[in-house]
Amino acid sequence: MTSTPLSTNRTVPITPTPMATWIDVPQAAIHKRSLSEILVTRFRREEDLCRFVVRILRRHTMWSAERDELPLIIAVEALRQVGLALGHLGGNVPLEWAFILNETSFSWTTSAPVWTGGDDLTLEVSCNVESSREHHGVLVELVAKTDFWLGDQLIGTGHGHINCLPPRAYRLIRRAAVATSNAAMAPGTALLHDRSNDDVQLRATLGWEYPHPFFYDHDADHVPGMLLAEAAIAAHMALNGVQPGSISLVCSKFAEFGSDVSLLTNKGALTSTEFTQSGAPIARARTGSPMGRGGSPVIAR
Length: 301
Prior knowledge:
Blueprint: E1 2-3, E2 23-24, E3 40-45, E4 50-57, H1 72-90, E5 98-108, E6 120-135, E7 138-150, E8 153-165, H2 167-173, H3 181-184, E9 192-197, E10 201-206, H4 225-240, E11 246-251, E12 261-266, E13 271-277, E14 280-288
Antiparallel strand pairs: 1-5, 2-3, 3-4, 4-6, 5-8, 5-11, 6-7, 7-8, 9-10, 10-12, 11-14, 12-13, 13-14
């Protein structure tokens, strides 16, 4: 999945922050137009890790008023935004560069946090870099592990692998893109449509959910990876009756707007969802229990 900048006209990189100093995360570093969709708000770099403040509004578009439990997809989005902020603020990545998220995984340690009142939920995320690669002092590849904290309680862990590309390189790999979201889409279409399933298997066509602000904050030249993650969560819920407590997603190809994306989900110890387009695999997801409830971390490979 890819995160593209809001503008390709900005060329000034963000200077890495001083050691142990909290700073506000600029909106441009999260690649979002809507302030309500920005989760990562503050950043601090220490000797062996980076820390982030994540603020989730109770009125977030993916957190329905009827549900107290924090949706898994919001945690996955927070993890994605941590990668963006780390690249720009800690890796000297210019604002106009694109990010490609090759794989991501997240698991609650026991269960999702529950809203108990107030306007928002504030978490702290610590991030350890497992490996990285730079070119002329600019981050171009990163593998990192994250821990999500609510006060002094560890509530979740995540993992991700990203690449950072300058505009020319991104345009080169996307030169065959058939359409953008604004040009290709019509409003509507449920997330899982043409759906058929029994107790152990589900087949469906991916709905675009356009123009949902969570997935389409700004124009995109491919189907958002977060839409694939949410479809895998929905398929898991359809077969298991409950929201999963963990997810991994590996994207091997871009999903294009020009033709249907099909998904096949099989229930098991880990529920697996395979995404294909024009008969070719494009992504796979695994969903399961939180790692503290008889499950184990779902690390994508």
